[in-house]
Amino acid sequence: MTVQILRKKFTVGQYHQMIESGILTDRDHVELIQGEIIEMSPVGRHHAACVDRLNELLVLKLFQKALIRVQSPILLSDHSEPQPDVSILQRREDFYDAGHPKPDDIFALVEVSDSTIEFDRDVKIPMYAQEHIPEVWLVNLNDTQVKRYCQPITTTYQQLQIFNLGEMLSFQAFPDVPIEINQIFG
Predict the structure, then answer these.
(1) How many domains does the chain have?
(2) CA-to-CA separations, 157 to 24, 96, 139, in angstroms, rounded
(3) Do 58 and 88 contact (CB within 8 A), yes or no?
(4) Which CATH number is 167's domain given?
(5) Chain centroid offset of residue 35 CA
(6) Count of beta carbons in the 10 Å neighbourhood of residue 186
(7) DSSP code string of 16-76
(8) Among candidates 75, 71, 102, which has minimal Cα distance to 89?
(9) Domain that holds residue 122
(10) Residue 85 in contact with residue 49, Cβ under 8 Å?
(11) Is the pTM of this model over 0.90?
């Protein structure tokens, strides 16, 4: 006999109601991924340091060209509100006070991974492709390399490039702003 497990999928509106009513609090490190509330892994010191390095590096290099947000929500659909490690966004006067950034506001996203590499690669990146995020970087702390995904189509990216220590890369939206891989890993 096969048993089917039913799952309740939540909308972004229901997710926000849970936050507003106190069911979910600041102590709950969660994000809404494809209708499911997913508990985020604790951030280790290497992960935190890498995100801080990226934040400083990108703010300095993209000053007045883009808005850099760290571990803040983006609204992808009615069922997904993830919190990428770094979001490179179009600048807005209200700094997105009127609503979380949507796919059309996003130049690129960066996910920093060590223990979550499979989840980021197999769940989040296909979701980003599905929502037409033009570029995603997967910073692999275990292998000290960056995978750059570009040209989204359905739930995949047509282009994947791998960058290692000693190499340079840049965002498609900012080809004149080179970034050294060594700067990302410290």
Answers:
(1) 1
(2) 33, 27, 16
(3) yes
(4) 3.90.1570.10
(5) 17
(6) 9
(7) HHHHHTTSS-TT--EEEETTEEEEPPPPPHHHHHHHHHHHHHHHHHSTTT-EEEES-----
(8) 102
(9) 42-185
(10) no
(11) yes
Q: Is residue 31 part of a domain?
A: no
Overall residue count recorded for the chain in this entry: 186
- By the 10 Å C-beta count (0-12 exposed, 13-18 middle, 19+ buried), 168 is classed as exposed
Six-digit token pair at 93? 């006067």
Does 161 fall in a domain?
yes
Antiparallel, parallel or unpaired: β 135-140 and 106-113 = parallel
Residue 28 falls inside a structural domain: no
The alpha-carbon radius of gyration of the chain (Å, integer) is: 17
pLDDT in single tens digits along all 186 residues of the chain: 677 777 789 999 999 999 999 999 888 899 999 999 999 888 899 999 999 999 999 999 999 999 999 999 999 999 999 999 999 999 999 999 999 999 999 999 999 999 999 999 999 999 999 999 999 999 999 999 999 999 999 999 999 999 999 999 999 999 999 999 999 999
Residue type, 164: N
Closest CA to 146 of 85, 65, 103: 85
Are 138 and 113 within 8 A, CB to CB?
A: yes
Is residue 26 situated within a structural domain? no
